[in-house]
Design brief:
The complex is a heterotrimer. Chain A is α+β, with helices and mostly antiparallel strands. In chain A, 38% of the residues lie in helices and 10% in strands. A four-stranded mixed beta sheet of chain A has the order 2-1-3-4, covered by helices on one side. In chain A, strand 3 and strand 4 form a beta hairpin. In chain A, helix 2 crosses helix 3 and helix 3 packs across helix 4. Chain A starts with 21 loop residues before the first helix and ends with a helix. Chain B is of the alpha/beta class. Chain B folds into three domains: 207 residues, NADH-ubiquinone oxidoreductase 51kDa subunit (Rossmann fold, 3-Layer(aba) Sandwich); 92 residues, Ubiquitin-like (UB roll) (Roll); 88 residues, Up-down Bundle (de novo design (two linked rop proteins)), CATH 1.20.1440.230. Chain B contains 18 helices and eleven strands. A five-stranded mixed beta sheet of chain B has the order 6-5-11-8-9. In chain B, helix 3 crosses helix 6 and helix 5 packs across helix 6. The longest helix of chain B is centred in the last third of the chain and has 24 residues. Chain C folds into three domains: 92 residues, Ubiquitin-like (UB roll); 148 residues, 2-Layer Sandwich (Alpha-Beta Plaits), CATH 3.30.70; 230 residues, Rossmann fold, CATH 3.40.50. Helices cover 22% and strands 21% of the residues of chain C. Classes of the chains: A alpha+beta, B alpha/beta, C alpha+beta.
Chain lengths: 173, 426, 519
């Protein structure tokens, strides 16, 4: 893994559309009111960006830094700490499968394989050729009694087995 | 109720009583079930009185450390000179643990009520409920509940906010959680200062686990003495506790029992025991960070803070991971080590490098390329990863390795000697 | 007083320290260096490298000396088996991903990873050579800083410096676990005016100065205490020389002046010290040309001029000259019937404060001894002095290239290099530059600070104080001085604010003079 490779594809400043305008700015104001510091709004602000744009580019980080009075490097340090923030574009549907020990012993690896096949993503972390799916393994989703839990975007699906996978995949457009 | 299963007669349902009842999620439904009466009761008392009641009840933190809750609250300054904060730890991420998730999904108001009572006791102006990022459904349910309760005006001047995590196990560590709320990397802080002196935003802060707070309303309505009487073994362990059981049992799920309950009964009766033809091999009784128990230890273990320690492990968060004789312990321990290597915040040397190195050695053993000296090396690394870092993530990685090698050494040796089919690890 | 002191024992040595002192600092006072990486007295405590683990009696676990406050009666053992084994283990962990490329690393020889590994590391690693090591390419962080992530031990000193001292967090820790590295954002560079300090702070060879890259091995360097000449702040520095060439300037800690830091302007302000186009011999005017001669001949020429001089004398001096030189240059004309004017000029630049340290900045006044010159009676009306010089009987210049195009009188040029305009000088005397002599400056706050000689002066060049003191003696103004210390003694006798000070007293940390600080 190269440090240089962590720089995301850059977007020229002329093409950049700011995230925090009008309605988004209002949402941010609401969030800011919850905390005594602007910095504390960083995680929620990053969630807003990811929801709006699907991922968080270096340019987005710089924008967030500016609206919260932080430096872009600081924001990048935080973004890279939290695994749920996408530093690269992902498929329209982002699938997270738990493969930690308790799920592993209940067959999580087979679920992963079934998902890779059914979505056409083929490889972990790769996006399917139709741009629709990205599947990744994650550590503990906190639903070990409902092995195997799968998070498709914001939908938390419990007790997934390889047999249930094609049906789940069909539900998403 | 042994959600998602039918309640078992041996359960003592206090927190899980309304699991599965969608109506209990609503504000009206909660009030109908007697909700928010405890908060009103607490509000009528001096904060110190509330703390005393919780102290008397013997309630201990349900997040893992088991620290007496009332005592923790009493560390907050009596005379308020700065804003006080309450942080609610809903960053449930310990492999094997999924109880807080169910509390938030089914009884969000129980948590909100407990939060408001605790905030009153410690004179907090603001409470942050830190919910792990992956808990999309509990977050949505909590948001709705919070909006409803807020518009019903039950919180008075208290402000309760939800703060969503973004994928970091370590944020369940209390000081890391506070850093994360502040918009920082979730790095644990050096103590002292302790949170009651300088916590979130540098202000006096108390941090409690979801299950701990959910247990507070019934303590107030039914009394400390009643709660204290719920104890099957050690008088230092009182009340009920949710045990999340997962792995190789017939009916995994959450089961609520009185502390001191036999682990054997939990596994064999409540959870329906092993799958046909399988026998119990090992059990991690308190979430993945605690030492592994073998079968004999499991079957003789009482589930309270003292009982599990007597068997050489810890009650932890109450996440019970059961392995039957089909489980490859070397592989499972590697998975756990990999989890910790993935989650290490990178601050302390022993943890950053040790968790990754431990994982590499285990992977090599699994691949059939282990060396006889690897086991001693693993144990030595574990020794150097224990008790030497800012937080206990490193210790948590070491615990299953040490107990695993101690109790299942032959499995490791079989891989090293080439008597087991190598497992290629991705 | 005693109420604020506590007594503890470190490795059997009792030591009394102020309340609130960290064990690691108390240990220094007991003569014990607890090995450490992330701790630095100029930065907030991080407690992350876990190298400074020590055993403290009655404490169940080993404690980090950097984050533990000393307490009354505490018994600290840094050499117990448990403490040593814990540190040995930290070293082993730090080295598993390290490339062990000391032969090509600039830090070798002054690397704390090397030093402590030598001191208490394992002879061999147990990390299998079959395991791949973490690899990340070298990154260009800023104008003078390269980052070699493979050597990084993530002590975070650089991150904390930029965040808490420079207060411009352009460095971060990126990712987590063993994938972590020091990161930047592609849109921002490490170009803060004090950024170079991260190179000094880095305890290993991970942050490197491009300027110093592969210039010298640490063990080839000679180090001399000096004072930065970049501005009037007077930061204490060390001049590193290799074979008589200054190759690096680094901060020398002084809590009263610059703490542990210097700015990049000062750090890069050394190349002129190595100039090759120096005046190497006294020169005298003969037949319209300057000719080399010996000191005696040159002195005779100068004294002849000075003895016969009447009317106006103008002395133009450089504010980079030592207090001692400025003093003896002034003394030449003291008490006579001459109409003396002395002046200096200071190049001005932009002020660049170091936000996290009060009263520390790259000052607008880019010279080290303007305050000293003022103290000795030199004025700042340089333009007027220049005009006056045109008609003066004698113009004496001390290493200041900005001199009048022509003068009616006699020009005596005392300097390091010969400017074009000084080719008409009657006599030119070669002097040592700051790296080649001992001397002292008075900084903007009136602090008198010594600097030591770091390299030899070229040819026949001598310290300016020696030159002027010899001239004074030749003019019958008393005995010449034989050393900078003696020269300073004379200054201290004559100049009220410096009275009572001596080189011995000044040491290499300096002392405040009894002068009001510059506004």
């Amino acid at each position: 893994m190269s440090a240089g490779a962590h720089s995301s594809p850059s977007v020229g400043p002329e093409e950049y559309q700011p995230v925090f305008t009008e309605q988004m700015l209002e949402q941010l104001q609401e969030i800011l009111a919850r905390y005594p510091t602007k910095q504390a709004a960083l995680l929620p602000a990053l969630w807003l960006v990811q929801r709006a744009r699907g991922w968080i580019s270096d340019r987005h980080m710089a924008e967030v830094a500016e609206v919260l009075g932080l430096t872009p490097a600081y924001v990048k340090g935080v973004v890279t700490f939290y695994t749920m923030y996408h530093q690269h574009p992902v498929g329209r549907h982002f699938v997270q499968v738990c493969t930690t020990s308790p799920c592993n012993i209940c067959g999580a690896e087979a679920v992963v394989q079934a998902l890779l096949t059914a979505t056409g993503a083929k490889e972990l972390g790769a996006t399917s050729p139709d741009g629709k799916w990205t599947v990744i393994e994650v550590e503990c989703l906190g639903a070990c009694g409902f092995a195997t839990p799968v998070l498709v975007d914001d939908d938390f699906i419990e007790s997934v087995t390889p047999e249930k996978v094609p049906e789940i995949v069909r539900k998403y457009k | 109720m042994g959600y998602p299963h039918k309640p078992h007669p041996k359960e003592t349902v206090l927190l899980s009583r309304y699991f599965g009842e969608a109506d209990a999620r609503t504000y009206k439904g909660w009030v109908k079930r007697g909700g928010y009466a405890a908060l009103e009761q607490a509000r009528a008392m001096e904060p110190a009185r509330v703390i005393d009641i919780v102290k008397e009840s013997g309630l201990r933190g349900r997040g893992g450390a088991g620290f007496p809750t009332g005592l923790k609250w009493s560390f907050m300054p009596k005379e308020k000179k700065k804003p006080h904060y309450l942080c609610v730890n809903a960053d449930e991420s310990e492999p094997g643990t999924f109880k807080d998730r169910e509390i938030m999904r089914w009884t969000p108001h129980a948590l909100l009520e407990g939060t408001a009572i605790a905030a009153h006791a410690i004179q907090a102006d603001v409470a942050y409920i830190y919910i792990r990022g992956e808990f999309t459904e509990p977050l949505a349910i909590m948001e709705k509940a919070l909006t409803d309760a807020r518009s019903a005006g039950v919180f008075g001047d208290l402000k309760i906010h939800l703060h969503r995590g973004a994928g970091a196990y370590i944020c369940g560590e209390e000081t890391a959680l506070m850093n994360s709320i502040e918009g920082k990397r979730g790095n644990p802080r050096i103590k002292p200062p302790f949170p009651a002196a300088a916590g979130v935003f540098g202000m006096p802060t108390t941090i409690n686990n979801v299950e701990t707070l959910a247990a507070v309303p019934p303590i107030l309505t039914k009394g400390a003495a009643w709660y204290k009487s719920l104890s099957l073994s050690s008088p230092k362990s009182t009340g009920t506790k949710l045990f999340s059981v997962c792995g190789h049992v017939q009916q995994p799920g959450n089961y609520e029992v009185t502390l001191g309950f036999p682990l054997k009964d939990l596994v064999y009766e409540l959870c329906g025991g092993m799958r046909p033809g399988r026998t119990l091999k090992a059990c991690i009784p308190g979430g993945s960070s605690v030492p592994i128990l073998d079968r004999a230890e499991t079957e003789s273990c009482l589930l309270d803070y003292e009982g599990v320690v007597e068997r050489g492990s810890m009650l932890g968060s109450g996440g019970v991971i059961v392995f039957d004789d089909s489980a490859d312990m070397v592989y499972q321990i590697m998975r756990l080590a990999r989890f910790y290597a993935h989650e290490s915040c990178a601050q302390c040397t022993q943890c950053r490098e040790g968790t990754a190195w431990t994982t590499k050695i285990l992977e090599r053993i699994l691949a059939g390329q282990g060396k006889p000296a690897d086991l001693d090396l693993l144990l030595d690394l574990a020794e150097n990863m224990t008790g030497k870092t800012i937080c206990v993530l490193s210790d948590s990685c070491a615990a299953p390795v040490v107990s695993g090698i101690k109790k299942f050494r032959s499995e490791f040796e079989e891989y090293i000697a080439g008597r087991r089919q190598p497992v290629l690890v991705a | 007083m005693s109420d604020d002191l506590i007594t503890l024992t470190i490795d059997g040595v009792p030591v009394s320290v102020a309340k609130g002192t960290l064990v690691i600092e108390a240990a220094k006072q007991a003569g014990v260096l607890v090995p450490h990486y992330c701790y630095h007295p100029g930065l907030p405590v991080a407690g992350v490298c876990r190298m400074c683990l020590v055993e403290i009696e009655k404490q169940p676990k080993l404690a980090v000396a950097c984050a533990t406050q000393a307490a009354e009666g505490m018994v600290v053992n840094t050499q117990s088996a448990a403490a040593k084994s814990a540190r040995t283990s930290v070293l082993e962990f730090l080295l598993i991903n390290h490339p062990l490329d000391c032969p090509i690393c600039d830090q070798a020889g002054e690397c704390e990873l090397q030093d402590f590994t030598f001191q208490e590391g394992r002879a061999a690693t147990r990390y299998s050579p079959e395991y791949p090591k973490r690899f990340n390419p070298v990154e260009d962080f800023g104008p003078d800083v390269l980052y070699v992530p493979n050597r990084c031990i993530l002590c975070t000193r650089c991150v904390r410096f930029m965040e808490d001292v420079a207060q411009e967090p352009v460095l971060n820790v990126s990712e987590r676990g063993d994938r972590a590295y020091i990161g930047v954002h592609p849109e921002t560079r490490l170009d803060h005016p004090w950024a170079g300090n991260v190179v000094d702070l880095c305890p290993v060879g991970s942050l490197l100065s491009k300027d110093f890259l592969h210039k010298a091995r640490a063990w080839e360097l000679d180090k001399s205490a000096s004072v930065c000449t970049g501005c009037s702040q007077g930061c204490n520095v060390t001049l590193d020389t290799r074979e008589n060439v200054v190759v690096r300037v680094r901060p020398r800690p002084n809590l009263e002046v610059n703490r542990y830091f210097i700015c990049d302007h000062g750090r890069m302000n050394y190349r002129w010290m190595n100039r090759g186009d120096r005046i190497e011999a006294p020169l005298v005017q003969r037949g319209g040309e300057l000719h080399a001669t010996d000191w005696q001949d040159a002195f005779e020429r100068v004294t002849t001029v000075l003895r016969g001089a009447g009317g106006r004398v103008v002395t133009l001096v450089s504010p980079r000259a030592s207090t001692e030189a400025l003093f003896f240059a002034r003394e030449l004309f003291r008490g006579g019937a001459l109409d003396w004017t002395g002046a200096f000029q200071v190049v001005m630049g932009e002020e660049a404060p170091l936000a996290g340290v009060p009263d520390l900045a790259l000052r607008a006044e880019r010279a080290p001894n303007g305050r000293g010159a003022e103290l000795l009676g030199y004025g700042r009306e340089y333009a007027a002095a220049l005009a006056a010089a045109e008609s003066a009987a004698v113009v004496l210049v001390l290493d200041e290239p900005d001199i009048p195009v022509r003068t009616a009188g006699t020009l005596i040029y005392v300097g390091t290099v010969l400017p074009e305009r000084a080719r008409d000088a009657h006599v030119v005397l070669p002097i040592a530059n700051v790296a080649e002599e001992e001397g002292s400056f008075v900084n903007r706050d009136g602090r008198v600070q010594r600097y030591a000689q770091a390299k030899t002066a070229p040819g026949m060049a001598r310290p300016a104080w020696w030159v002027f003191s010899e001239l004074g003696a030749a003019l019958g103004q008393g005995e010449p001085v034989g050393s900078a210390a003696e020269a300073f003694e004379r200054v201290a006798q004559a100049i009220e604010p410096l009275r009572g000070l001596s080189y011995e007293q000044l040491g290499f940390g300096g002392r405040p003079a009894a002068v009001p600080a510059a506004v």
